[in-house]
Amino acid sequence: MYIPTYDDMLAAHDRIAPHIRRTPVRTSDYLNELTGAELFFKCENFQEPGAFKVRGATNAVFGLDADQAARGVATHSSGNHASCLSYAARLRGIPCNVVMPRTAPQAKKDTVRRYGGVITECEPSTSSREETFARVQAETGGDFVHPYNDPRVIAGQGTCARELWEQTGGMDAVVAPIGGGGMISGTCLTLSTLAPDCQVIAAEPEQADDAYRSFKAGHIIADDAPKTIADGLLVPLKDLTWHFVSNHVTEIYTASDAEIIEAMKLTWKHLRVVMEPSSAVPLAVILKNRAAFAGKRVGVIITGGNVDLDRLPWMPA
Amino acid sequence: MYIPTYDDMLAAHDRIAPHIRRTPVRTSDYLNELTGAELFFKCENFQEPGAFKVRGATNAVFGLDADQAARGVATHSSGNHASCLSYAARLRGIPCNVVMPRTAPQAKKDTVRRYGGVITECEPSTSSREETFARVQAETGGDFVHPYNDPRVIAGQGTCARELWEQTGGMDAVVAPIGGGGMISGTCLTLSTLAPDCQVIAAEPEQADDAYRSFKAGHIIADDAPKTIADGLLVPLKDLTWHFVSNHVTEIYTASDAEIIEAMKLTWKHLRVVMEPSSAVPLAVILKNRAAFAGKRVGVIITGGNVDLDRLPWMPA
User: Does the residue A316 lie in any domain?
Assistant: First the structure.
């Protein structure tokens, strides 16, 4: 297992800078008053394909040698990694095959196809996803770019915390959602060197709290097919992300789906950005654990903004 | 009638800069491909109270002498001017009285009250609004800050186009919504000196097209109580804004409510910002008049982001 380094992150940043956006940081006096903290929201939902995952995907795609690039890339993903890898592959002009749960939001499927990704659907469970992927990968010969358990991907995601640190001039803590742990691992990778005193806090849905339970138990615990409104956070930790989570994460907090939806509406209303339920988990845990954040400068990574506007979680079913 | 000058705009910018945000400019490759133009969206929805009107309101409030400041300010408004004037008055610590239609969105009333504004409701017509306001203004002695027909307000709004010009490094055209004409007048004020070759194009709902009909007729035509989803654009031109519209606006285009809603969804989906129906009229007219904009660098002012998330226009009633 190769553990990506701070220098890998710096190299990734140089490689991807021409292809990604340096996303803005937004603040809200209202949300600061509400939480008692000074919040800095890093708007990765403003990446062209709508999620931070374009960082890791672009780093993987543009790091391929010419022979492998000709055979393209392949992956499985609950959504944003799929669209971001398709986007990155299109930028380089190479094929991208994607295994995606049939239950993924229509908006995410549409986006993958708009970027030229070829989708093979699977059942919404980790086991079905992995079986289907093995078949697709064998058929196409595409290089497997795992959504998070890949050193190239983690080094790419780490570039976000580097920008956030530069843009804010320093923070006491950074809070990001945790699913498979790619963003959190990249954040740990970067901050453990750049700002070792800055806390890295993971935010997880109660209804998919395998990372929380793993963190408390000291070993990886995986669920098969958890259900939460935060559909970007359904996947389990793997060895590489567990390395970063177990060594560098300060704390993991969880929030209920109702709390996540409330935080999502608060952000839409007061920050006026469109973000996914998964991206609302950090604000939900900050509101729920006020004492842990009050008086601090806290970075919050808004991980993605791809939602189905016709099926918002507060709409009547 | 005092016509505000370019120097008034520069003085306004110095006066308000400590109190407002220099809002970011967003772009979308997808929307550029769709329109054939290069679009630069100025995110005034990211002002703390959610609308560009904080510029003019802050300029008026911080320009008052101490005696008048003690009696505060008063206005009538369909929404954002009310919340922005309340916000500015609270920043200076002075009273703000607001006459607002009883049909205004609940989200806008809530915002005014959160900023300490005192609301007196009227019927949703221009005549009722003006009658009620005369009474409130006589009772309180507050300085009347008109939502748009006020040189201080127009000079303040003009600071937005100045920032947009600096942030983009130049454009062929700027498109903004037109209701009473405050933003369009400020844009004309600034660009007629700063960039006289840059077109200023107004975008208006078909169902409240009094500015369009005025522009074509050569004199002000006012509707009483028009109805459109773009509820920030219901008010008529007045003498001061008519001066700028008739002398400096290149063209006025209109769009139907269905086209406005479609453009609003497109922006939420691809730009991932929360904006009001009124702010979607520019993109609606750009999509409808593709040939007029294709190949050009076009600034689009996203005027506001205060919407009732429980009553979005594409939700079932």
Answer: no
- Using a CB-CB cut-off of 8 Å, the residues of chain B touching A24 are 24
CATH of the domain at A219: 3.40.50.1100
Q: Which domain holds residue B297?
A: 6-52+150-311
Question: Does residue B268 register a pLDDT over 80?
Answer: yes
In the predicted model, residues of chain A with pLDDT beneath 70 are 78
CA B51 to chain centre: 7
Q: Which helix (H) or strand (E) holds B76?
A: strand B73-76
Contact B272 A275 (CB under 8 A): yes
Best probe of the A interface among B83, B84, B272, by most A CBs < 10 A, is B272
- Residues A307, A246, single domain; the answer is yes
Q: Both A82 and A124 in a single domain?
A: yes
Tokens 């772009």: give the residue: B27
**Nearest in space to A264 (alpha carbons), one of A206, A307, A295:** A307
Question: Residue A1 falls within a domain, yes or no?
Answer: no
Do B88 and B220 sit in the same domain of this protein? no
pLDDT for residue B90 is more than 80 = yes
Nearest-Cα distance to chain A for B305, in Å, is: 6
So what's the pLDDT on residue B104?
A: 82
Q: What is the pLDDT of residue A308?
A: 87
Averaged pLDDT score across all residues of chain B: 95
E strand or H helix at B118, and its extent?
A: strand B118-122
Q: Give the integer Cα–Cα distance in Å for A188 and A186.
A: 5
Put the strands of the sheet holding A25-26 in their side by side order: A25-26, A38-43, A297-302, A173-177, A199-205, A251-255
Task: Tell me if B316 is assigned to some domain.
Answer: no
Length of chain B: 317
Per-residue pLDDT tens for B98-122? 999 898 877 778 889 999 999 999 9
Residue range B1-11: mean pLDDT, rounded: 97
Are B183 and B288 members of one domain? Answer: yes
Q: Chain B partners of A30 at a C-beta cutoff of 8 Å?
A: 48
Instruction: List the helix and strand counts (H, then E) for chain A.
Output: 14, 10
Residue type for position B256: S
Same domain, A216 and A252: yes
Helical spans, DSSP H, in B98-125: 106-114
Domain boundary among A104, A122, A144: A144
| Residue B51 clears pLDDT 80, i.e. is over it | yes
Examine the pLDDT at B78 and tell me if it is beyond 90.
no
Q: Is the ipTM of this complex over 0.85?
A: yes
Full-model pTM: 0.94
Domain boundary among A122, A144, A166: A144
Identify whether residues B156 and B26 lie together within a single domain.
Answer: yes
- Joined together, the tokens standing for residue B276 give 């009001």
